[in-house]
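Worked Example 4.2. Consider the chain below.
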Amino acid sequence: MKTAAVLIRDPEQQYEGLRTSLGLLLEDTLVQMFVLHHEIANMDEAYRDNMEFIDEMEGERFSNHSANVEKYGFKHVTMADVAEKIIAADVVIPF
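Applying the procedure from the previous section yields the following structure tokens:
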């Protein structure tokens, strides 16, 4: 199984990063989604539902921003951890 790291650094791209993560999961790819350097800007019901779908499909959600960890259930990650995970990934998709 292939592994994809989806890096979401631009708050304007958070929906595109989430949709890409979901699409990859549907294609039998292990997905690690990273929201870096910002709190999720628009946590509406659709975004929350899609994050739960990522969890149900055994994708992983990481963030280095404490608000995402505390409010939205992301796993905390340091930039050193991010570097290790993207080196190990088969595909890296930046947003």
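Residues 14-26 form the longest helix (13 residues). Strands lie at 3-8, 30-35, 60-63, 75-76, 91-94. Compare this with Example 4.1 before moving on.
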